[in-house]
Each structure stands twice: as C-alpha cells, then as structure tokens.
Amino acid sequence: DGLSSPYFGDSPLKRRAPSFGYKPRETVFSPT
Amino acid sequence: ESMELVKDLFEHLCGVRVHKCYEDDAGLWFDTSQGSRNGIMDYKLGFVRSDEAGTEVVYIPLLKQRSSDELKILQQQIPSYMFDTLSFPLKSLPQFYSKMARCLGKEVRDRD
Amino acid sequence: ESMELVKDLFEHLCGVRVHKCYEDDAGLWFDTSQGSRNGIMDYKLGFVRSDEAGTEVVYIPLLKQRSSDELKILQQQIPSYMFDTLSFPLKSLPQFYSKMARCLGKEVRDRD
Q: What is the value of pTM for the model shown?
C-alpha cells in the first residue's frame, strides 16, 4: 500500500493519520 | 531530501510521528502520534509565542477516535492529567516526551 | 509544511537533530546530532537493507571535529564501545536512542 518503506518496513504510527482527518502519506524516495 | 524519510527515522528512533505541521494565528501546531506496540497516544502539540513568558507548549490529547478497549489500556498506562489539555513552558518539553514514552512503554495485561 | 519546522520540533522534543538525509548504493544515511547542554554526540546512522537479516542499522560516531575537552566529557558520559562503529538490527534502534539519551543527559563535573 506504499506506506511501508524498504528500509523501515511498516510504520504503525504513520497509519494513525486518519485520526487527524487525513490520509497517511507514501514515502517517496527522492533521487539522490 | 524527503520529509517522509525524516519522519520515518523519527518514528523508528524516538517513537514519535509528526503527521502534519501547520501555523495559525494562535501559533504553530503539530499533529502527532507517540508510542509503540504497547500503547499509542494521538495528540496535538501547539507552540504559542508570548513575549513575557517565552514560548508556551499546549498539549491536546485526541481521544474521540479511540475505542473503549484502547482507552482502557491507556488509562492503565498514563496518569489521568494527561487525558486533559495541558500547557507548560518550552523547557519542559523533553520531560513531557520522556514521561509519555515511559508510560506508553508499560506492558498492560488486558484485564478481561 | 516545512522540513525545518519538523526538525526543530524533534530537536526540542527528543534532543535529536537530523542535518541531512541521503541515499547511496549502501543504503539510507542520516547525519545526526543528539544530546543536550550536558553533552552532544555527532554521528551518522545508516540503514542497510539485507533480505535475510532485514534492515541493519550502522552507527558511525563522528569525533574528528570534537575538542579534547569535549571528548574528555563524552568519555565520562558514554561507554567506550559507543566511540566505535556499531551495527545492530532495526528493532534495537529505540534502545540505542534511549541509551544515548541517558548517557548524554549525565551531568559531568569538569575535573580540572
């Protein structure tokens, strides 16, 4: 679902964004 | 440099996730979730500037979305005063964080 | 939403400042400073993916820029193994953070 990162795996706290009324954001990797 | 990468680091390093930060005429606000598998608290942290007292921190716990089971566990983990809005000076912010981290780290046997 | 505001929050809330985050073929890196007025440690945190072992964290203390006085104080605060590069599993990252926070929070009387 784009919410877990290849480095950190799942981030449970990230999934709580809906408690504040918005969708959790995907981790986008900027080209380094 | 991606904002989400920095937020991922802080979630896994310090057990805190900032979902969003925004400013209004009262001050600067952060929508925050803190905790681990034992317990999680959602709250707003506000930073209100005042000339005489320096920056005041406002803590507003968000409980409406929580299930009664979650609240039962939180009530065994954190002191009752942390279920209400609190305000304290900026210099006490690290104590607030570690107090919340210690409380939410407590293992709670589910009674029933 | 400004990256600097989020970084400011984490510096005041958790005593950690991320200066920079970047990715190379080895993995994802964060240039970090942690501590408070009692003592500050600069280090790199690397996150190296490996299929079998999951993500490994690499901790590289940065000491070259530190004065001998600062190093003397740090040597009284943190254990010697934290002056060397360490690697540990991702799940131990919160313990690393709180260990470092506890050590750097120690008041150290300046000997001389």
A: 0.91
Cβ pair B14:C45 closer than 8 A: no
pLDDT of chain A, 32 residues: tens digit per residue: 667 888 999 899 999 999 898 877 765 554 43
Chain length of chain B: 112
> For B35, which residue in chain A has the nearest alpha carbon?
A13
Strand ranges across the sheet with C28-36: C16-23, C28-36, C39-48, C56-61, C86-89
| Chain A interface residues (partner B, CB cutoff 8 A) | 5, 7-8, 11-14, 16-20, 22, 24-30
Give ipTM to 2 decimals.
0.91
Phi/psi of residue C87, nearest 5 degrees = -135, 145
B19:A17 CB<8 A = yes
Contact A17, B4 (CB under 8 A): no
For the record, the structure tokens of B25 come out as 């005429």
* Residues facing C30 on adjacent strands: C21, C45
Say how far apart CA C108 and CA C38 lie, in whole Å.
7
